[in-house]
Amino acid sequence: MYISNDASRARQREAQLARENRAEIARAINQEQVTRRELLRWGIFTASGMLAMKNGLSPFAKSAYAAVPTGAPRTPLFGVKKFSQPMYRLHLLNPVPMTRTSQGHAAFPAHLAERPAKRLSYHTDFSADPTNRQFINPRTYRGPIEGRPPGEIFAHQRWDEYFPKVGYIMRLGQIAQGGGGYFHDHFPLQQPDSVWCYGGGRTGECNLPPFLIKGRYGEPIITRIYNDLPANRAQNNGFGRNETQLHFHNAHNGAESDGAANVHHFPGTFYDYRWSTTLARRDKINTQATDRRASGPDDSTGLVNVPGDFRELQGSLWAHDHRFFFTAENVYKGNLGAINYYSGPDRGNEELADGVNLRLPSGKLLGWGNIDFDVNLVFSDCVCDASGQLFFDIFDTDGMVGDVPLVNFGYAPFFEVLPRKYRFRVLNACMSRFLKLALADAKGNPVPIKFIANDGNLVVTPLTLTSLPVQGMGERYDIVVDFSGFRVGDRIRVVNQVRHDDGRGPKEELSLVKAIKGDTKDPVVGPMLEFRVVSAVESVDVPGVIHRATDPDVSRVPLQLTEQIPIVTPVRTRVVEFGRSGEGDSRGPDGCVPDCGEYVNFPWTIRINGETSHSMNANRISLLVPKAGEVEHWTYRNGGGGWDHPIHLHFEEGVTISRKGLKLEATEAFQRKDVWRLGENGSVTFQVQFGEFGGSYVNHCHNTIHEDFAMLARLQLLTGVAGSPQTAVTPTPNPTPDGVVFTTPEILPEGAPKGWRDSQPVQAAQLSGMVTP
Asked: In Å, what is the CA distance from 320 to each residue of 93, 124, 259, 357, 542?
């Protein structure tokens, strides 16, 4: 993909010209100067909607100077070297207390001058009186002030039961000029629309690294997201869409707060997400909250018991933009952050011994949620143009891999550690790049790793490894590394062992010895992060306190972290196949649902139970779960063609049962996960049980290029909560700058179990378009 820096000047110019031509076409499309039909007529796109294989245009077309593809130019580094700047910790946001008003709303502290959060959206007020200016978008004077759709369907489910106790105010906007924190302090500053990210508070500026939120079971959260992006779609430096919905991956929330129910909102509006901090199975298991393991920390060192199954406690989560058809572009621009959940067993206090707390490495200065020795690591890659501005190639539907390794959005940084145990929460936030990470000492020897959690779920028994499994996009691995055997001054590097040629999937897994040396074909192979052992570090939990190498390490990693969830006979089974079948059918006579832009067709499709393949349409239900609490076994299957896919299921985790094509590693065998790598021609089977909330969710490939082009399917959950609108299939919201309108969704024949159709003939007929509702 990326040509060598040693290539001839002629080849360098050729690759740069092809990139500039692609960027010019992208700008023309974005500014509506050309149409897809014109591009087809000019031969720039093929009939299938793919970029034509032409020299001077496609990076995969044959070079005029060699019998190899043209390729893409490398990112200029402007003299910046690896490990020349410290790693930035994620930007910790602090919550504010919420209080209940006499109307039952959740009020922010008065000094913030914020409207209270409500069970019903402010769109409901706007719909009742569109002339009332207090409910109108204050920037555009079009549409409602809140992007959440109106009425009971998108009201916060179980509002009183999970009334918000704390709140956050976040603003999505252009990166602050001179704010730093992106790529490298000595790298050219990014232009305002090259990077979009989140700022905290009422007028907080957007900066990178991304945010970190500390949540705890038993403390529901309201998160208000303002969209401060430019109102003009063309103001995006060539990629990205200025509309957003924030997906909390993979928390247990109602569909209205999942951030992937086709509910993106527009510049000038806000959206109130209620994150329930619900422990799954709260309606079936431990309903009286008597099990101390099912709990969250209180304000001191005690516990607040909650209903639910302690075996389903979550820890390392994250949030990211999920605007359908533009997720990859928006997340790549910086629209993401991390969320750590704390519980009785995973308290974030390594000293507290109460018979429940596992005492994993964290710190001890705070009652809970210490992060002095519990560190979030967001691994990603990027590419910049000749001027150093972030670049995204919107025409590559196979996937996009960058040539610059980033950790917490900094270029190959270093991080100082004491000679003691640390916990690292490792997230692969790349668009299309798989990672395989290992630690190497100065002699190139592997450093032991204790694997303690997969996708935020504690494994039953810690596993000692010499390298992590291949990690797909969106997967999280929690590990513990013991640096006590090293001396002050020693350096240990985190090395990526997977080589990519393109976005189709891993090309080769290299040995640690080879990977340490790097690879001329893939600049992100090799060291990505350096740990430096030092004698003292300042606390981030209580600034001013100094931790020293001589301090005793009281943390531990117990021999058992949780208990196994048994595999049982399912109520039903489903097979979901991910592949590439024709042009897809996302684009209908009236366009896409939602708006998808018009520059390409959609090659990626999903097939349910062997029926017809479909590409993404938010108004099409591909999977319907008719009853909360029923156990199902699902098989995710790769349709082949040489691609690899990491598949993500929203809302619930599954217990991994078996695999074909790839070895079932101990790190996932009978462990809970929410992203599964399929491998070429492979499949994975898992057990899943839905409950507590209902509405519209999705499952999709987390190669976000594949997701956007459009390997994504709608999942409809029917809740068992009496009186809830989610006991029936919910209509599809269609956001516009003037407000949300609803349409009646189509339900595929294979989408709903036959028994449900037989018991709901009128509703099934309506949803199939056979009867007017």
From this structure: 16, 26, 9, 30, 28
Strands 712-717 and 620-625, by their bridges, are: parallel
- Return the SS3 of 551: coil
Q: Which of 495, 421, 423, 473 is nearest to 453 (CA)?
A: 423
Which one, of 632, 619, 640, 642, lies nearest residue 732 by Cα?
A: 619
CA 739 to chain centre: 27
Question: Hey, what amino acid is at 51?
Answer: L
Are 591 and 623 found together in one domain?
Answer: yes
151 and 178 part of one domain:
no
Identify whether 52 is part of a domain. no
Q: What is the rounded CA–CA span in Å between residue 724 and residue 694?
A: 9
Regarding whether 151 and 261 lie in a shared domain, the answer is: no
Instruction: Quote the domain boundaries for residue 144.
Output: 120-155
126 lies in the same domain as 105: no
The answer to whether the CB of 134 falls within 8 A of the CB of 190 is: no
pLDDT tens-digit readout, 63-100: 888 777 778 889 999 999 999 999 999 999 999 999 99
CA distance 563 to 697: 28
CA 407 → CA 73, 258, 410, 726, distances in Å?
Answer: 22, 26, 5, 40
DSSP 18-31: HHHHHHHHHHHHHT
The CATH number of the domain where 670 resides is what?
2.60.40.420
pLDDT tens per residue across span 745-770: 999 999 988 878 777 755 554 454 43
User: Are 98 and 245 in a shared domain?
Assistant: yes
Two structure tokens written together for 234: 């063309």
Structure tokens at 709: 């082009």
